[in-house]
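A favour, since you know our structure tokens better than I do. It will help me judge whether the discrete encoding reads sensibly. The space below this message is yours for that.
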Amino acid sequence: MTLSRHDTFRSIGQILAADVLPALCRAERLPLRVTCLGTVNDDGGDDADGFDRTLLLGECPSPEEAMDLAILRVSRGDIHAGRDDALRFRPRIAVIQDSEYGLVLAGEIRAGIILWRQPVASDAEARRIVTEASRLRGMAFAASGHGEHGSARDLRYRASLLEARLVDPFWRETAAELLSLPRAA
């Protein structure tokens, strides 16, 4: 039995290209920021009277830890707009971004869980999503101009859910792998 040189040894160039350089590129984009988009309103008011707000939940050194932090905070329901108990924060979208504000992963929040969005599979799919999200944002602008603030907020929210799939190309493979792994509840 003879062993092929390719099976036993890798050249320094192969090691650099396959292991070292990707790790260095990833390290440059860390830490990851975990935020939550939602609506703030008075305790007795409805969402039409509220306003949109983005809250920082924390920073993490890896996509896995960022995902776990988002899941934990949403499931505990401890995301608040501030110290004022009269303000109620309704979380709608969890977002993980890198230090360059590239989207790593995002998902819709429903009933205390995050429904993570699959990243786009191609640049062509990303262009279609951008076109549709732009159309929805245009409709939201028009609705806002007519005083239909609740409708405008819903249209912006729908656009944001579409854009949640626009994962930075650098993170697409990582995000797809994260979503394919089973996670503890």
In short: The helical segments are 5-8, 12-28, 63-76, 123-145, 149-163, 172-180. The chain has a mean pLDDT of 86. Residues 1 and 7 are 13 Å apart (CA to CA).
